[in-house]
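stage 2 :: seqdesign
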């Protein structure tokens, strides 16, 4: 499994480094730091002087970046795998996404330097843009991943399940974990008048079908060595996922992106984006 670890020197960035303890040894681990030097905003300045100031600032930031990469390298867990250090210049989100594609990364690990959920959804931080644009799995740390034994895997449908199975077959975790599969159904009460007994029967039937679905996925995961548990519940997806995560005390929530496309993907978000902002546990988003 190829891992791209993007670092910027923030506290959350160091939490991303520590999270590697819980991931399997990488076939290739790329340490990436992106220098994004601001251009001088002085319209009356002579262009040559402005360019020289920018060049000096960029040189200084590159030197700081090299020292950061060396420090991060020294903090990596012993089982990290072969490491490549990379210093790049440009827009951080675009550089990270492009590097992940070039390196054929299976997983991007990085910290979230939050601006707050409202601003982040409207304007896009680096972590939010990477989450939205990168085509591989993303683990974006908003705090400590202190342990990794219990994983909650909410599934929406067959395509979600297939994507989760593809990722989990890569054996991404260092130690054995239990995968808690969950499917959340909205209310199944029909729009036409119906008595409570009939409504309860419809709900029970829908839950049985949902449970059969997650049980089938659980069986496939068991064949590749995972311990599993399964559940199906009724209710609003985000609220129920967060409720089950708290009830189970999971260390990590794994979710398919399921985001809307285009501008709506950034402004409105998706279930995975909402869970990422509100969950007390860490969230890994797979594609």
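stage 2 :: out
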């Amino acid at each position: 499994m190829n891992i791209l670890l993007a670092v910027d020197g923030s506290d959350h960035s160091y939490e991303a480094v520590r999270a590697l303890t819980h991931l399997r040894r990488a076939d290739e681990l790329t340490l990436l730091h992106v220098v994004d030097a601001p251009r001088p905003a002085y319209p009356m300045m002579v262009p040559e002087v402005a360019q020289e100031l920018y060049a000096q600032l960029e040189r200084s930031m590159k030197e700081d970046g090299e020292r950061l990469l060396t420090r991060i390298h020294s903090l990596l867990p012993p089982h990290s795998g072969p490491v490549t250090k990379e210093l790049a210049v440009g827009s951080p989100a675009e550089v990270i996404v492009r590097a992940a594609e070039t390196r054929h990364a299976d997983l991007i690990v990085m910290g979230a330097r939050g601006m707050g959920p409202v601003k982040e959804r409207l304007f896009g931080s680096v972590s939010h843009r990477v989450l939205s644009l990168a085509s591989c799995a993303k683990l974006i740390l908003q705090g400590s991943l202190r342990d990794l034994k219990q994983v909650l895997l909410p599934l929406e449908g067959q395509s979600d399940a297939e994507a989760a199975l593809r990722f989990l077959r890569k054996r991404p975790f260092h130690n054995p974990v239990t995968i808690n599969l969950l499917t959340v159904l909205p209310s199944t009460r029909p729009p036409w008048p119906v008595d409570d007994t009939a409504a309860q029967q419809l709900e029970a039937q829908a839950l049985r079908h949902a449970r059969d679905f997650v049980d089938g996925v659980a069986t496939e995961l068991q064949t590749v060595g995972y311990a599993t548990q399964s559940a199906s519940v009724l209710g609003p997806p985000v609220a129920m996922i967060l409720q089950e995560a708290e009830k189970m005390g999971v260390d990590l929530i794994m979710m398919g992106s399921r985001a809307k496309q285009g501008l709506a993907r950034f402004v409105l978000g998706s279930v995975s984006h909402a869970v990422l902002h509100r969950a007390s546990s860490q969230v890994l988003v797979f594609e």
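stage 3 :: structure notes
- The domain at 1-146 is CATH 3.40.50.620 (Rossmann fold).
- The first strand starts at residue 2 and ends at 6.
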